[in-house]
Design goal:
Blueprint lengths: L5 E2 L6 E2 L2 H8 L9 H15 L3 H5 L12 H23 L1 E4 L6 E2 L5 H6 L18 H12 L4 H8 L2 H4 L8 H8 L9 E5 L9 E5 L2 H9 L13 E4 L7 E2 L7 H9 L5 E9 L2 E2 L8 E9 L4 H4 L8 E7 L8 H19 L1 H9 L1 E4 L5 E12 L2 H7 L28 H14 L5 H9 L19 H4 L4 H21 L1 H9 L22 H14 L6 H18 L1
Parallel strand pairs: 9-14
Antiparallel strand pairs: 1-2, 3-7, 4-14, 5-6, 6-12, 7-8, 9-11, 10-11, 11-12, 13-14
Helix pairs in contact: 2-4, 19-21, 19-22
InterPro entries: Plavaka (IPR041078)
Organism: Suillus luteus UH-Slu-Lm8-n1
Protein name: C2H2-type domain-containing protein
Amino acid sequence: MPKASSYCPSCGKKFKDHSSVTRHMSQPLSGCNTWLDDLIQLKQSSCSRKIMPWKWMTSPNLTYLTPMNQWDSWIWVTFLVKERDKIHDESSEVTDHFPNPPLAFEDGYTFLSLFDSDKNSIYRKTNLYYPFSSRKEWQISSWLLRSGLSMGKIDAFLGLEMIKDLSLLFRSARELRGQAEMLPSGPCWKSQMITTIHPMKSPVVLYWHDPLECILNIFNHPLFHDHMDYSTRRVYTCAQKACHVYTEWMTGDCAWEIQSALPVCATLLGTILSSDKTTISSLTGDRVAHPLLISLANLHMNTRLKSSTHSFVLAALLPVPKFVHKKKHMKGVLQDRLIHQCLNIVLHPLKQAAEHGIMLSDPIGRSCYCFTTLASYIVDMPEAMMLAAVGGKTSPMTMVMYTQFGDSFQHEPRTRSTTLAQLAVICSHADPNDLEAYFREGQKFRLNGVDKPFWSDWIFADPSHFLTPEILHHIHKEFYDHDAQWLIVSVGESEIDFQFSVLQPITGFWHFCEGILKLKQVTGHCHHDIQQSIIAVSADAAPPGVLAAVCVLMQFRYLVQS
């Protein structure tokens, strides 16, 4: 007899047995782990009111269904509570939309119309899975192409006797790749040899996609239609508009100000860039590059942050060259200049679209007059300083240097106009091609020697605005490098390791059975799990002043980030 399936009473997901349901509901990150507590609270509340739960929680917007038994009634009550809270939150907020909303014209194109414009679309009228013969062949091909197997392993798989008995149109990995290339393609790779006046150990080649095509793939994606903002707005908690609520980028003051400067009825597209130095090959030359990812700030945050939505698209591979120079710090200046030079090449279409506008189609085929401004550039602190063209121990967002980090007041922001004015003064005293003289003049303003920042001709791009903090480095990594080290010194290395090792293992959280001092390849998720326990672990051993300072700093960082 087959085992009966079990279902989660909260979300209704199907599991093979009751133990699987228990493990699912015990996950701390799952929305179902609080279901039992909510059920108890609802039962206590309903008993105190002496009336049926749905009579005091229903609303005209909800459709009532009679529950079959007491168990189903409590599930229905949970749904009513969530719907009631959601309706209450939405009704209490006041939204001011931008006076001139974007216009859309009915002469655009959809994703499917682009797909059907392919030269092989005529064959798909009779065979939906062309260039494959059937759905089964397409499933096998799709699995092989997405599996990450090498060409040799795919050939070995196709050489199995059982697979040979299948009527496949391809018999090798090369033939499979050839058929896949007949499908409609995305943005094509471009390449360009980068030349500089200073010698390099080897030639440098820049590879990139057209960023406008990458933006179009996101803006025109049918799955993002209900998860994208097309107009700026301001959200307040009440009708008096005393408290401004910032949720998405399009609810912020910066987006409102940029929209006010654009032509009437234009569509604002906030571009998000992200890069980090990464090794792209192992054991084959140790190639290193800066992968440049691109996305849209118009996408809702919950959608953009899900890796399954693929909302970040690879736009370029920025090279990391090796220059020939007798002074080591001059090599770093040349590398920084090359990164800005490559960014100028890659992002040139976005700069043109930000200044003059471009017609792009949304997911339902409406044509919009779009302007692509730089909303955010997600990088760690060293790359942020390189992009802002400032030197070491200097803030890329404000005019603060290392001797002023402890000041009790907020310094003025490092605006676009300030940095460009400083660069103009430096150029009047030194030739940018005279690297050492230019660098010496730049040090007087705490700049790093870059003469042409990539954002200098990108309208509305300001380092103090687009260099936004991110959780991994500005909260988790900073906590581990500073707050955790203070507590380790205060408590003692052996003591804090022992305290972490005897903690009760909890499903969904890292159990540090050997302590936290010998961790290697620590990720942000691991930092987050340490934060959950370190205050309780150190409560009886750390001095009260140190513990209170760490608590205040952790709360302050979360408030700043949120």
